Amino acid sequence: MLRPREGETQQDRDRIVNLSDGVFAIAITLLVLDIRAPDIPQRMVDSQLPGALLSLWPNYLGYVLSFVGISAFWLIHHSIFRSITAYDRVLIYLNFLFLMVVAFVPFPTSLLGEYGDHQLPVAIYAATLAVGRLLLTAIHWYASRNDRLMDEPQDPARVRFFLIRGLTIPAIFLLSIVISFFSVGVAILIWFIMLVVDAVVTRRRFR
Amino acid sequence: MLRPREGETQQDRDRIVNLSDGVFAIAITLLVLDIRAPDIPQRMVDSQLPGALLSLWPNYLGYVLSFVGISAFWLIHHSIFRSITAYDRVLIYLNFLFLMVVAFVPFPTSLLGEYGDHQLPVAIYAATLAVGRLLLTAIHWYASRNDRLMDEPQDPARVRFFLIRGLTIPAIFLLSIVISFFSVGVAILIWFIMLVVDAVVTRRRFR
Amino acid sequence: MLRPREGETQQDRDRIVNLSDGVFAIAITLLVLDIRAPDIPQRMVDSQLPGALLSLWPNYLGYVLSFVGISAFWLIHHSIFRSITAYDRVLIYLNFLFLMVVAFVPFPTSLLGEYGDHQLPVAIYAATLAVGRLLLTAIHWYASRNDRLMDEPQDPARVRFFLIRGLTIPAIFLLSIVISFFSVGVAILIWFIMLVVDAVVTRRRFR
Amino acid sequence: MLRPREGETQQDRDRIVNLSDGVFAIAITLLVLDIRAPDIPQRMVDSQLPGALLSLWPNYLGYVLSFVGISAFWLIHHSIFRSITAYDRVLIYLNFLFLMVVAFVPFPTSLLGEYGDHQLPVAIYAATLAVGRLLLTAIHWYASRNDRLMDEPQDPARVRFFLIRGLTIPAIFLLSIVISFFSVGVAILIWFIMLVVDAVVTRRRFR
């Protein structure tokens, strides 16, 4: 029932993209619900509020991290779907699986904000983003292999570059899980370095 | 006031589809709010967090189930509205009724996550999805009967296949309610089997 | 800065409609967050859950009422904006004012679900919907008076019919506030009757 | 990978705008979650509910303020993106940074609703809106400097006017932080005056 008919393909693709954008937009906006105004008796507000707000720093960190992480997912999703003009059920299923991970991100973020100085939440967070990134790589790989889904044949060098990057980043996330057993702070630092390097590498390569 | 005028039909249909996609996107993204970070004193985190996270498994199950269920609704909604090019008030009312069920899904999911080993929440969950699926069947049936709402006459075999499937699945959901009186686990298992079979049957038939 | 330039008008109007639809979709989907799974000790679930779920009936009622109310707002908004092809700042301000009321609806709904058998929440709820409806009437009235905002001159009889309806319904809502001092149940009943009559009258008139 | 290809630019720009509108719509609709129905024993509702609802006035104020603030952001974002027809990574990064602030607004709003008569929350609120406004100015400034991102060369007088306004308003917000040390009420009053003046000035200038 989903076989593309002439002239409908573009519109169908748009509906998938719109649904995905809705999930992206909601997931990044829900993150803020996890930063809650501290509960302080009125007469102690002036003395205690500054400290209470500062002690929420793992929540701010989690907010920024997940916002950046989901934004990066969106950018890659956007890059991939730019070239996709048709789709089949497998592509839709992969996309839904990916969206299930995106919509899940607020939970590990919440764990990180609550228990960010412990190993387990850091590992869960890294694993979630690694799986999300792998699913994006799978979507791209599947679509590239099926030329009829793309608007034009893909440049093999580009596909290879995307594949390598799409496997390296999850690998680094998984590596950060190993590191988190020794130092939680270093593991989180690695994520930030990776995000910056990733952005710079892409710009270099495709300027 | 909603009688379609020349050249506006497509755009109007798009606005209904957009609103529906918004509800779909929000409903699947809100599901995660039901998985809450457990509350553990800082010095016991290392010993108690793993167990606390594992004990949330009914919430994870509910998240996956409802995500799959709402995704399946979206896929069918998408199939139906692909062929719909015009609409009337009845169609809008049916669609709103359907969206009311979609937006309601997080509540039975929450019940399932909290009391998933009891009969009543399982029955409520099955009933909610059965009603949602029946409303989709009603939308398709109504639109197929009114050729002026569709872009082209529908293949009767296809309409019949869709109708049978659209009645079978709610019937199985209702059957699972009966079964839930004997075994809650078997009832939930049936939903999973049904989802897989449903996906495979569709692919076979319309490849 | 918002004066329409050739060929951009349609796209600009679309962005306003999209933002509005986003608010509509989120407002109706957030309503469910107000229906919370009751908190019952595991060993008493079987005996107490049915009663606890039944006692949530004011929340279910509020969910259905607000869903229907916001859907009705959407339908009217949709009718109005179908004919609007340009816009100015006043229209945008009126629309934002209207959206502020739509996004507010979950709060009176929550009050109604909690204290629905008392006069004040019923009055607040009626007042909120009355103000929302009045703003829709204001939007339509403003756009009709400025022919350059509409795609074609409006039929005066139609404009008058819309204006009368758009003032009658808020008036009935306000009347229901007076009635709520005597009987809360009758006030709520009036809303339901009004919604049904409203739907039927429109269909008659514009079949 | 994001270099615009012929005929795709418009569609790409639309996806950025759609994502932004999603974040706008959700941020303004989530604000209401901060106004919670007060918790009163059933037999005291009639006597205590009116007072309890009145005492929520800082929350209502915060709702209106943030709704107006985010709406103003949307209007300016809308003005800017009307003229933008292409984009590059810097523009996307700036836009995401801006969206991170928009999505954050519910938190300072929540603080303001809880502790609005204290200096710190007022300062945080003003700082958040100042940063958001500065980022919008940065987006406009960056896009204006790169003619290839705009549909036509920008009128320098207009660009200058926008730049001055886009620096004045954050400056006033920062000034209100200084004032908040002396009087919290005056600081909040200044925001309201500024919003009204801003709306009037724009209308005058571009009528």
Put the structure in a nutshell.
Four copies of one chain form a homotetramer. Chain A is about 75% helix and about 0% strand.
Task: Write the SSE topology.
The structure is a homotetramer of 207-residue chains.
Chain A: H1 9-30, H2 45-54, H3 57-83, H4 89-104, H5 106-115, H6 119-145, H7 156-180, H8 184-206
Helix pairs in contact in A: 1-3, 1-4, 3-5, 3-6, 4-6, 5-6, 6-7, 7-8
Question: Overview of this structure, please?
Answer:
Four copies of one chain form a homotetramer. The first copy, chain A, is mainly alpha-helical and about 210 residues long. In chain A, about 75% of the residues lie in helices and about 0% in strands. Chain A is built from eight helices and no strands. The longest helix of chain A is centred in the middle third of the chain and has 27 residues, at about 55-85. The model of chain A is unreliable at about 1-10 (pLDDT under 50).
